[in-house]
């Protein structure tokens, strides 16, 4: 059939934008001068997702060593430029990791699709604290049942309370993630009391295990602070210890007013300070805490009693008497002096410098104080009525066994023909788990891999808990039945050396470690 006259072409309403300036293309990674693009280090094309992604991120400074973008990893992460010297072990890191991205030129397929028997054997090895010894190099990781069972064993941790529909770690800054989830206890005081009673039983059980040497450490994660309890012999301390961070002046005043931890020291962290240089008793707190902006030496103002403080105030104005003008100049009254001191103490609130450290027998009164402290539980907001989260590497009463989420992937280096393999581990990665995973990846990946670590930043302050000189020289405590590998225990016995920082980049090359914090 004959066709009618064709309709006039419809004008593109967006044709007027054809002359608009084009958006600049994203810069592409450049290949090394004089070489093939595939020769570029593969780790430059992978980077971890941030724990909390800000809406906008400033571009890194020119010349910074940054990781380029991949398809499913969106934000570049600046890598510190100053690595450590190669060593057989990396330092103990007491911070909690939220995500670890391992990268290697060898595949991670041996971590996938564990058989039911391998999974069951791994859980049994964890519960029995079985020590695994692998050869320096595993030729066929996919066929090594021992390696796959040990991998399952390294992913296990214990948690309380266990509410599958709620993310219970991290708790600091988690209101946005919990908002909108079902919380039937929010308006039910009877249910809140049941949850709290059950939590107190689990907390007390963990502490008894720790004092008996059956639990090496555990964390108490609250909406506003985190507490790390460590058994005697760990962290360079010959006595049990508890570190609390971040804290506020109100919380520190509560510790002092209760009088239950009157012999517990308050540890003011300072970069480069000698061990014990910023230590004071709780009933006589330091008038000024060290901060990274001040001199890295020891605190210059020791803890004094109230009488000594009054004497110092009188002596500070003695020069007026020497000039004969003491009656003409108005001296500040006691209230003004107290307000000035309180202002100085408040400056460290919510910062790593607000770290509180309690040692020895004072950990028991601290336990009782935390059990009866109502402020540990939020009274409003999405976390209202929800007890703090308990994290432990070993089983305890009321604890629930959980495993970290692990997934492997393969990516192609942009502009090259080389494949890059990655293993992503998600969840609260505790210090012993980081050591266990690296101990397995060495033989499985032929002694070469890199790892990018995302840290729960409030917990990084636990790396700034140096032991006093008196404790550091004490005999090492024997913890044979605490559930951890002896080599992991040797690492955790070390005095913290990272300050308020945490390991962000870890590399193994030829079975030797280098790291950046």
UniProtKB/TrEMBL annotation:
Gene Ontology annotations for the cellular component aspect, listed alphabetically: nucleus
Domain of life: Eukaryota
Biased composition (Low complexity): 20-33
GO biological process, one term: nuclear DNA replication
Keyword Cell division: no
Compositional bias annotation for Acidic residues: 304-316
Compartments (UniProt record): Nucleus
Principal location: nucleus
Span list, region Disordered: 1-42, 289-316
Keywords: Developmental protein, Nucleus
Sequence similarity: Belongs to the DONSON family.
PANTHER family: DOWNSTREAM NEIGHBOR OF SON, PROTEIN DOWNSTREAM NEIGHBOR OF SON
Protein name from the UniProt record: DONS protein
Source organism (scientific name): Onychorhynchus coronatus
